[in-house]
Each structure stands twice: as C-alpha cells, then as structure tokens.
Amino acid sequence: MLHPRHLRNSGALLKMLLGLSLCFGQEPNYSEQRQQMVELQLQGRDIYDNNTLGAMRTVPRHLFVPKAQRAYAYADGPLPIGHRQTISQPYIVAFMTQVLRLKKRDRVLEVGTGSGYQAAVLGKLVDSVFTIEIVEPLGLEAKKRLHYLGYPNVVVKIGDGYHGWEEKAPFDGIMVTAGAETLPQPLVEQLAEGGRMIIPLGPHNGIRQLVLVQKRKGKIKTTELMPVRFVPFTREH
Ligand code: SAH
What we know:
By secondary structure, this protein is an alpha/beta fold. It is built from seven helices and nine strands.
C-alpha cells in the first residue's frame, strides 16, 4: 500500500513511477536474474565446472517455461510446464550436467525432453545432443522452441526413451530426467566405453536417488549421489 506520506518528496515520487513502469511496461531484467541464479544457487552450492556455469549463464530459461511462470523462471525450484510435467530446479539441471564431465566432441542422449531447457544446456557443451520425449505435444513444442532459439545440434524425437536411440548410439553421456524404478537395460547397452549416465532411480511416490552409472572395460559401476524428487518415467502401452 502507498501512504500519502511517502509522496512528500520527489525522490519518493520518482521511485513510485519507476516501480509502476516496471509493473506495467518493461520486461524484468531476466539476464540479471540469470546471473544471480548462477551465483547464488549454483556457485553458492557445489557447481564449479566452468562449462556448466557458462551454459547456465547463457540459456534463457524464461523462454522455456509457460508465460504464466516466466516471473519465477530463475527461482530456486522446479516449475510446471503442462501435461503434469515439470522443468527441473536450476541446481538439479546444473548438477546432472556437471556430473557427466562432458567434452566438446561428446555425443549425449537425454531421455525426457520436457521443455527442452536441459537439452539446450547440454547443447551449449557438446556437439551432438539427442533427446526423446514421450508426451507428443511437449516434444513438438520443445522441438519448435529449440529451432527458433537456435540449437541446431539438438535433435528431438517423440517416443518411449526406455529403448534409447539405437541408430545414434553409443553415447558418451546419457541423462534421464524422469524418475525410473529400475535401470533401463537398453540405455546401459547404448552407453559408450568410459561413458557416464545420470538417472533418478527409486520407487514412484517416494524419494529417489540420483545414480551415476559408469561403464569401464565393459563393467558397470553405480554410485548413489543424492536424494531427489522427479516426475515418473512412464512407458508406452
Ligand atoms: N528435462 C526437462 C524436464 C523433464 S520432466 C526440461 O528440461 O524441461 C520429465 C520428462 O520426461 C517429462 O516431459 C515426461 O513426459 C518425460 N518422460 C517420462 N517418461 C518418458 C519416457 N519413457 N521416454 C521419454 N520421455 C519420458
């Protein structure tokens, strides 16, 4: 509320006018919000990989969320993107990206395109990203958005990511962004020698673990990294 007392000097009046113009006219400064997100939510925690930080500083997250969510795009949490799905919290996006230890020439598979935001972040780091979405309208929208925003190295496919993407395998990195009950075997097979996969695993309706899967000399090693909540991995019937 504004009390007449606040209007006694022109400084207060100027401030009020500035506030009004911010409310009704100009766009908020998303770029500044994004830099703050990186500083406080990522560097302020345990994200140190410069490539990951650089990608998170650049990709315009507010253009990947529905208009009604835009004001919250850089907040420290997940957001709804329709079809009962969510875009992950920025920190989780960064953590899962960092853990893959990607190199420029790597080929990466993402399962669960959603808004396309995570795929865009990956697309800043590596030459080729392949991403699969099971909910057709989400996949089509993400495809359009990635094209429009300029990510020619990210390829979107509609389908059940359980089967991976045989023709494009093997992958140096695989990221699953929906919570699965068990490790999909085709994804393990499509992981390259020396490759890394990150996947939330555990019972539906419960806390899952982010699990790192590494393939070395054909052997699989799994490591639990942290407890997380994720929308469920679904299957085509
Ligand atoms: N990475 C996304 C958010 C993922 S939410 C982003 O950056 O916005 C998880 C997504 O996984 C949802 O869109 C959901 O529809 C999708 N999904 C669930 N099971 C899947 C499956 N078997 N294959 C492909 N996508 C799946």
